[in-house]
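Section 3.1: Structural characterization of target chains.
Under the original work plan, the team committed to producing a structural model for every single-chain target entering the pipeline before any wet-lab resources were allocated. The record below documents one such target. The sequence was received from the expression subgroup and is listed exactly as submitted; it comprises 789 residues.
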Amino acid sequence: MPEPSYPPVIPGPPRASSIVLPGVFSLGAGNERYVVVGGGALLIEVEAGDRVTVVNTEGGQPCELVGVGSDGKADAGLVGVAANSHAAGLKALLLSGEESLLQFRRKIERRGIELAGAQAVRLFGEATPAGSEESFVVQRAGSLIVAAPGGPMAPDGQDTATPLTVLVRRAAVNPVRRFELPDPLADPVLDQRVKSMTAQAYFVKAGDYIQIIDVDGRQCTDFQCFSARKLDKGRDLPLDVTTTRTLMGSSYPMPGLFSKYYDQDMEPLVEVVQDTCGRHDAFALACAAKYYDDIGYPGHPNCSTNFNTVLAEHGVTPRAGWMAANFFFNTAIDAHGLVVSDEPWSRPGDYVLMRALTDLVCVSSACPDDTSPANGWNLTDIHVRTYSGAEKFTRAIARRMSPDAEPVMTRETAFHSRFARHTRDFIEYKGYWLANSFAKAGPIEEYWACREKAVVMDLSPLRKFEVTGPDSQALLQYVLTRDVKKLSVGQVVYSSMCYKHGGMIDDGTLLRLGQDNFRWIGGDDFSGTWLRQQAEKLGLKVMVRSSTDQMHNIAVQGPKSRDILKEIIWTSPKQPSMDELEWFRFAVARIGDAQGVPVVVSRTGYTGELGYEIFCHPRDAETVFDAVWEAGQPHGLKPMGMAALDMVRIEAGLAFAGHEFTDDTDPFEAGVGFTVPLKSKPDDFIGRDALIRRKEHPARKLVGLEIDGNVNVGHGDCVHVGRPQIGVVTSSMRSPVLGKNIALARVDVAHSEPGTKVEIGKLDGHQKRLPATIVTFPHFDPQKTRPRS
């Protein structure tokens, strides 16, 4: 008989899936990570044997460690090292009144900690390199305060306060990974755990706050609520997600203007105040018995049945499947109309904070779905807290600047109070609330004020980095595309920053404050991280430290901007006056006179007009704004928001991250090829070889479009020649000054010649087309005569 034939065998047992997980999920059991912001402090509970490592993340940041015993009194020997300072930095922070330290102060008060005579272990100094670390072993149980002290930075100084990273390796490791419940946001009215695979009902008074917390991360929870007044009348009208989506115009409410959930009477029940996750579901029902029956799991626990059980005592009619706000569920609708889902985005401690708009009966579940990735294949608990309506919580969305970063809540800029006098229309941008438009004027009037008179706008979210040290020029020469060696003290240059493959990381401006002193101002936090990574890789003696929180700025733009600033800006004889300050130069100055508030004024902008930017420490922001505002009124100065800013920058052909460029777009394709002086820059820089290749063999080109008609065109609309798509619209607007519909678009070079006729696809790209013509850009003032004037 012939030998039997067997298929080849893959040797060995099966291998686990290879998955790269960010941040807290990849630390491993017993390991914790905390970030202390510059000018901030943190309290960590510790046990004997815990190993604590403090990392000087960006370099040059002092640290103070203060041990506290279980009795609330200072314990100088908690970390096994003798104290060497009187905790002056920590005490100064506590006396500063900074709102960012409010939670820390509450922790101190809640634990009855006394710091009057506390001593500290002081670590690091101004010259400590980035990445330096010190480790300690905790001697006994207690609390450890880690402070990153720092004072206000002068606008022309570079002594910024930067973060510290704290790593804790626990002596006692729980083999079953569980995370600590975060401290309350305030004193809770209700503090209730919703155990895995169950649901809990609870009452919330009108005006009170509801916090729903994902304790261990990647656990979904269904939320439902009813007007208590209507329940008393026998009407059990639940929160209705269809009504909510219709009225809010979004998949689900988020903090800001469109933040409310409604019932079928269109009565608002709750509004979302804070959200640290940002991905939820308001389409599908809560899981129900039929769902599990149909996929082969009859009798499986489900949220709808759990809801019916706990709501029965409130007189609520049972439902086979409950409509709900499905918090932390990661669902989406794909291009084919299918609802798709995956593991949640939520991480340990993520939460949604809502405010009750009427007396409510609420119910929350800890979803029991272990048949899909909906709960990350690991069922855990949900925690609910409620707080008194007397507490004050600002609207906020959490942003993580990188996958491994800690969440940062949306903040108000130092100029917010002044702009808030003129509008309530604020939008989230890069972690801050910025004015979108102003009620008395509106984007069109703001636009014309910029083109004809002057405007003031808030640009504080721009990321600022202090680059200092003997190798600072060498680093910037290698990382930026511009020739930094040609930059004089007092000069500004606009540059691209690229990856090795030529794709853009960021664009921004570089100010030279001294021989070895630079300030990089860009749009993305990662540009600072990238600078730091390259400095470490090359072994350069340079520090790159974030100063965004120390340096807020407004822009004064328009033909009258110089006349306004001449009245309020004082400069010493060593600095140029406003009449002398040339395009892409800056001056160290003061408001009013030699004793006034210190500022840095640069002749730069993002409008295509004559304009300036004024940088100051946040504590001086209101003084600076008031001076500009008062001087500007005789000249017709108006506030301008993001909507009008987008209009003027498109006319001027100015690139915007995420629109004109991404990390797969090179500067030539983004329309900023002038920032890459391949022929005149003698030194190598990151991406140079790729950019030479891409310039010699271009595939795409940024062009202008003039559109025949007034139908709105949007970012991402397809551009066609006949049937095939040859490009995509990056930005568009209806230009008031030109009286036509215009756009910027990235198209195939074969169809990039001015005069080429194209069509912009709407609907599915084929059923509706808008004729357009390719033109050169900028559409407005192509010779830049206005900003140069």
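The first helix runs from residue 88 to 95.
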